[in-house]
Write a structure and sequence with these properties.
This protein is an alpha+beta fold. The strands form three sheets. A six-stranded antiparallel beta sheet has the order 3-2-1-6-5-4, sandwiched between helices. Strands 8-10-11-13-12 form a five-stranded mixed beta sheet. Strands 7-9 form a two-stranded antiparallel ribbon.
Length: about 450
């Protein structure tokens, strides 16, 4: 066994012609190595090409690439060159090549020694490359069949981290190996280490990406099933809840006889609970349709001011009971935009109902502005919103803590504002909200493109 590659005094390959031939082969192999690095990011493809490169381009018999398994603490033979010698070795080994494992603490193995001492070794026995995994008898038999006489074992590093070894098996004797060839193989090992580490990182990233993509597709499928479940469940719930609401209305209106005050109070609470449940079911159905792309917008030229007037008429009893005002004073009687009337009506009802719900003193004022777009504002003097919570509005289930949503026993799910946002965006507009803080009121607004800016 030899230590660091020796400088030989035998000038067999040191004449000018042979040196020129060696350098020409080295340049060709170097070009091919960089070509592999830049063109082959797949780990398995790159390692096989590297194992093939030096034997094929420099006329050696076998190239072996072995890498460290950090988790299991052994050196594993990753790739064997597809040369005649490599095929012969693969067929002659007493165990499958890919099953060979060399413990990193087996100090007499030359591959382990090269890694520990960070130096290249030259030897004449294949057994010292494979021990203790295969027997000396088998190693000698394989070496004889390959017809090789010496092996060069070079450690591989990436950013000073040991990652494996590259072994070159040659049929020429040590006396015919030039100094230039030895140095060239060492230099190749430096490039191979960086290339393999880059390829391994790329492969790991690709695997992670593929796993994330698979997980994403699974989540999409689950989300689709969830939407279908919500849609079906909501449909099934709406019918019995509507029936219950109908019977409660009949009881409240004396269809089954007069009720005492306690019964009326209980009935009122049951009716309010039923209404909240129906609102939730309707919101869930709307969201299910939106997220499945089943919502259609039938745009038509509409007087926005007129639609607001019609929508707010139904709140008369509620504002009278609360002792607050609801005012709409448009600067113009006609403000036109192309909208889906039914969806616009739902947007207005949702925003005005919220404003009334969370206003105990003062009232709600509605206004329209005309600039580049039509802008509708619903301003209240109610509970207000903590500024840090403003960004949570209009999200699905975007309930707020200690502010707007929790200032009333009714609360809310946050679904209504999410539906408002989707409807307005579907009609080409945008939504937003503003508040100076808790108990300082709130302003909700939405915009719609003016009639002369869009085509229905």
């Amino acid at each position: 066994m030899k230590d660091k590659l020796p400088t030989l005094n035998i000038p067999i390959n040191e004449n000018p012609i042979n040196r020129l031939l060696d350098r020409n082969r080295a340049l060709t192999a170097t070009y091919e190595l960089y070509k592999i690095i830049y063109e082959s990011l797949d780990f398995d493809v790159m390692t096989q090409k590297i194992a093939n490169l030096i034997p094929q381009k420099l006329g050696y018999e076998v190239g072996i690439l072995a890498l460290i398994d950090d988790e299991r603490k052994y050196l594993t033979k990753v790739t064997l060159s597809e040369t005649i010698g490599g095929v012969t070795a693969s067929k002659s080994l007493e165990m499958p090549f890919d099953k060979i494992r060399i413990p990193l603490d087996y100090e007499t193995n030359l591959c382990v020694k090269a890694l520990r001492n960070k130096r290249t070794y030259l030897n004449q026995s294949l057994y010292q490359v494979f021990e203790p995994t295969i027997s000396r008898r088998n190693a000698d038999a394989v070496q004889k069949k390959m017809g090789t006489k010496i092996n060069i074992i070079s450690p591989l590093f990436a950013h000073e981290k040991p990652i494996g070894v590259f072994v070159v098996c040659m049929s020429k004797g040590e006396e015919y190996l030039s100094v230039f060839e030895k140095e060239m193989i060492e230099k190749f090992a430096e490039g191979i280490g960086v290339a393999i580490e880059s390829s391994r990182l790329y492969s790991e990233l690709k695997t992670a990406k593929d796993e994330l993509h698979t997980a994403y597709e699974s989540l999409q499928e689950q989300d689709k099933l969830k939407d279908e479940f919500i849609s079906i469940t909501s449909h099934e719930l709406r019918t019995p809840m509507t029936i219950i609401d109908g019977y409660l209305w009949m009881l409240a209106n004396g269809k089954a006889g007069e009720l005492n005050e306690n019964q009326k109070e209980y009935l009122k609470k049951a009716s309010e609970g039923t209404k909240r449940m129906l609102d939730l079911i309707n919101d869930m159905l709307n969201i299910s349709r939106i997220e499945q792309g089943k919502i259609e917008f039938k745009l038509e030229l509409t007087n926005i001011a007129s639609e607001i007037e019609k929508a707010i008429k139904g709140f008369g009893t509620e504002i009278k009971q609360k002792g607050i005002h609801l005012k709409f004073n448009p600067t113009k009687e006609s403000v036109f935009a192309y909208v889906d009337k039914a969806k616009l009506n739902e947007v207005i009802l949702n925003l005005v109902e919220n404003a009334i719900k969370f206003t105990a003193v003062g009232g709600v004022d509605i206004s329209i502005e005309e600039n580049d777009d039509v802008k509708v504002k619903i301003k209240d003097t109610g509970a207000g919103i903590d500024k840090k919570n403003l960004e949570k509005l209009f999200r699905k289930f975007g309930r707020l803590d200690r502010s707007y949503q929790t200032s009333t026993a009714g609360g809310g799910t946050g679904l209504g504002l999410y539906v408002v946002k989707k409807y307005i965006e579907g009609m080409g507009g945008s939504v937003g909200a503003f508040s100076e803080g808790l108990n300082l009121g709130s302003t909700f607004w939405f915009t719609l493109p003016k009639a002369n800016k869009i085509t229905p």
